[in-house]
Amino acid sequence: MTTATRQPPHHDTLTCYCDYHCRLPECVARYRNYERERGRAITAGTWQPLLDAEPVRQHLLKLRTAGITVHRVATITGLQYRQVRAFIQHDYGNAAPRRRRVTREVAAKILAVNAADHTPGNVDCTGSRRRVQALMAIGWPLIYIAERAGIHPSNRSVILSRPTIRATTAQKIAAAYDELRHEKPARHGVRPTSIKRAKQQAAANKWPPPSYWDERMDVIDDPDFEPMYGVTKRLIIAQDANELMRFSGLDRAAAAQRLGVSKSYLDHAFRDHPEYAVEVAA
Known about the structure:
Layout lengths: L14 H6 L4 H20 L6 E2 L1 H12 L4 H8 L3 H5 L15 E2 L1 H8 L3 H4 L3 E3 L1 H12 L4 H8 L14 E3 H14 L11 H13 L5 H4 L19 H16 L3 H8 L3 H10 L10
Antiparallel strand pairs: 1-2, 3-4
Helix pairs in contact: 8-10, 8-11, 9-10, 13-14, 13-15, 14-15
């Protein structure tokens, strides 16, 4: 009988060597360099061993109860979102275990976050709206998301339209997002027609799914970040040509030359996106 070997989530820290028994040459070299530096620091009396991460985890849980999301903690401390999230849950995307050790520097940054200093009554709704839209993109109907987040059914639709939201509600939506983003709606009793309807609405509006945000969690709450999901080169060309032709008086051939494409390509772009087509002499 054989036992499946866990694969390291990455090969740029000591985790793969220590926790996953990775023995790639570069990972072994990284571990040996660490041990050499550690030995020198111990000899010099400057060594600071890793601390138990449980106090950090408990502090994060208290902050979450007070409405301070993991994303907010990451923003305040300047740490990466995944780095902070790893203290309270494992990363479903790569099966990495929950972090149980922490450097003094990281612990100090997180423990210094005071809920009283960072808990606003209302927060921008951008991040909450994007999380809801992402879940709908993989088939979760809005009513199911609202139920998981503890939002009254009569208030569920306002998530997609209002500019601000209560901080505690934003936290509930963030928690629901983390719970549902790797789950299949059908396994939770959601009807196929409801799944299809949610996906169709998301596709029609070009709402990015969780896989799009996995590498962009540092900007999911940023209202100034514009997701380019589902945007093709032809759409961009059609939009840019529309502006050039309307404001600069260029014809299609001149606009295409300015944009570095052929006139035929621009014609196809306008055909695919007629809402941007400009009718001028070619």
